Amino acid sequence: MRTRKFYYIHDEQYVKADDTATGLTRDTFTFKMDEVIVPTEDQFDESLVLLVFPIGTLFHIDSVLRMFNLKDDVFYFFQQCKDVIAVPEEHQDDKGNGKMNFQSFFHNVPYSMYAGNPNALVIVALDPEEEGGEGPRHYHLGGYMHLNRFKFQPDPLTGDLEPAFYFNMLRISQRMQDGQEVYRRKKLFSLFFSISHRLCEHAGINYIYASMGNENVKIKEALHRCGEVFGVPYERLPFKIFGKVNYFSESKSASKHLIDITQDKEMLKKYYDRLVESSANFIFWPYQTFDLFMDMVQKVTSYSKSSRIWMVKDEQGGIGAATFAMNWGDFFAFLMQNPKGIFKLLAALKLTEKILYFKLTIGKPEYYKTLQKGLLYHYRHHHGVKLSFLPSYTGDPYYKYKKSLLADEYVFFVMTHKPERWQHFKELSTDANGHLQVFIDQPIV
Question: Of 31, 44, 332, 355, which alpha carbon lies 20 to 30 A from 103's?
């Protein structure tokens, strides 16, 4: 066991605009910075500059890099981010179990990532050149991660808001030097998880969770070891994501019943009230107020004009079913690696480059059926989306209509510093049929 230091950067302040040597104007920002020591089992021999900062700071990353005498070219930094984020996420183990690995190629970094979750923290590991040269040091981005911050309120007796972290987008660079991988297989995954746990202690947060492919052995082992090191118990909770090829599951007639309510505040309030009715007992329900919900909707739809909230009417003219249809194709391109079985056909036909994702669904199953079929038709014909992802779980009332041969097994990995309290939340979030309800609609990024 060794220790490293990371820098928690916060409280951004605008200082001034400078003229650069090229005659251009450059805004400068200052920050408060906490230095935090973290235990780690990583096996990387060199020093690393480990930074944690709010995702909005990406827009002023040049000021942060200058604080550490690092090359402050924002285009270089963002290209490094895009390259590392595009490293495949493994849904296959070393024996080939699992159906595929996949890559996410984000467009328009950092704007696409910020729109998905503006409350996230970013964790980066920068591998700088040795000190001693003239001018700012060159560096390579060794790893990148998002730590999404939200609060949930599962206990109606107290009304207390519980802060939590949800981490995702963890990628380690595949950079090679002299035929050897520079960063991978050196337990940098464990380093990032250790930083996350230390941030929990630093921020007074007792719950942290992630979702991952069931066959992602490296991540599960790293999380297991991190739980041992920090003495934090964990639990794995399974769920699935089904895929529907739009062409085979759509309906033109159903699309005629679709109503876009994204700008209809009165209908959105009714939609939100129904969401609270059906989903507020889920453990990680993050939208305690209508304002929080609307803030999320506004940020996503301002960036992705084709991501909308849709409904179909019931016989009384009210909401029969509704969902937030997110066009992931506006955020990133999704490409498979080493697909198996029917996933090979999807990859060959290039059906995964744009994906529709269903989020925050309400309504009766019979109306949901019409909604789903109509949306698959609408997004294929108007936005070129050929594939839809439908997250599901044990006890899902829409399971019958989501079910498909295209299915990828996932797990939620939940760690908590308060295991007794966690058990209490589980009891509150178990439905009448004994099914534990976890927040299934994980953040996009």
Answer: 44
